[in-house]
Amino acid sequence: MSTKVIVCSTFKSRFLGLMFQKNIKQALCFPRCNSIHTFFMRIPIFVIITNLEHVVLFCKVVSPWRVVLPVKDGYYTYEFPVGSVSVKKGTKFEV
């Protein structure tokens, strides 16, 4: 994968995420997160939610102004530019 992944560990970085951005050049990782929203986002994103062992539990393109409800056993949530990564549910996700 060639997309840079930034870990969001502060309140501000977790709160802002990718909101208000017109294009996305990096991916975000949210530890201890099993759901997201795309309120105030301008473009769709590719969302991956994994468990502690990095097994993909959820992966889908999510449009702006949507909610991804909590995923059971989800621990890491990743937000990528659409088309920058390809994974399938049940596979191990290597960052």
Verbal overview:
With 95 residues, this protein is mostly beta strands. 6% of the residues lie in helices and 35% in strands. The protein is built from 1 helix and 7 strands. It has one helix at 11-16, and strands at 4-7, 26-31, 36-37, 45-50, 56-62, 67-68, 76-81. It has a 5-stranded mixed beta sheet with strand order 1-2-7-4-5, with no helix packed on it. Strands 3-6 form a two-stranded antiparallel ribbon. It starts with a strand and ends in a 14-residue tail after the last strand. The mean pLDDT is 89.
List the SSEs and their pairings:
Layout: E1 4-7, H1 11-16, E2 26-31, E3 36-37, E4 45-50, E5 56-62, E6 67-68, E7 76-81
In brief:
The chain has 95 residues and is mainly β. The protein has 1 helix and 7 strands; from the N terminus they run E-H-E-E-E-E-E-E.
Low-confidence stretches: none
Q: Give me the count of strands.
A: 7
What would you call the quaternary organization?
single chain
Percent helix: under 10%
Helix and strand string, N-terminal first? EHEEEEEE
Strand content: 25-35%
